[in-house]
Specification:
Layout (H helix, E strand, L loop, with lengths): L9 E4 L24 H9 L3 E7 L1 H4 L5 H15 L6 E7 L15 H10 L6 E5 L2 H10 L2 E5 L7 H10 L3 E2 L2 H8 L1
Parallel strand pairs: 1-2, 1-4, 2-3, 4-5, 5-6
Helix pairs in contact: 1-7
Bound molecules: magnesium ion.
């Protein structure tokens, strides 16, 4: 079923507001809702790309919920996505609070760079897709391509200008982004 997967191509995905509805500091697996078309888009993307989940979860650093709760939310999302193996090649939940020194927290490119190194990815064939400025910045900082999934809650003049300056495409959904860029 997957003869054409390019093991050097990677799709780095934001979670909240990109794959699942952004409920704001989601800590209850029962609150996980896939966005329309996201499941089908990731099944399609997995046929040609390695998938990586890259999510800022400052709710951990802020003490709103635990890493275990954040992982339970992820597990629920993965159950709903029902991706065939290998599913996500790696998952990064960056736990830092915004005011704490950033290690993995986007816009840090550290997770992307580590995956490129570890899995031998070709940066020219990697994308970071997300709904916030920090997603786009992480991709640009890592030297890969980046695309915006427009979220009315986070779309701003700053985001528009960043896309314009860096020539980044913008889409209304993950499904549209995957259809266009992969
Ligand atoms: Mg997001």
């Amino acid at each position: 079923m997957t003869p054409s997967r390019d093991t050097r191509a990677g799709l780095f995905l934001d979670r909240d507001g990109t794959i699942i509805a952004d409920a704001g500091f989601l800590s209850d697996p029962a609150g996980v809702v896939l966005l329309a078309g996201a499941k089908e888009a990731l099944h399609r993307a997995l046929r040609s790309h390695r998938l990586y989940l890259f999510s800022n979860q400052s709710g951990i650093g802020r003490g709103y919920y635990t890493l275990a709760q954040a992982l339970a939310v992820n597990a629920r999302m993965e159950a709903l996505l029902a991706l065939p193996p290998p599913g996500f090649s790696a998952v990064c939940l960056a736990p830092e609070a915004p005011e704490a020194p950033a290690v993995y927290r986007k816009p840090s490119p550290r997770f992307i760079r580590e995956c490129i190194e570890k899995d031998g990815l070709d940066p020219a064939r990697c994308w970071m897709v997300g709904d916030r400025l920090s997603d786009l910045q992480a991709g640009v900082n890592a030297g890969i391509r980046a695309a915006l999934v427009r979220n009315p809650d986070h779309f701003s003049e700053e985001v528009r200008l960043f896309c314009q300056t860096h020539g980044l495409p913008a889409f209304d959904s993950l499904a549209q982004a995957v259809a266009a860029v992969l």
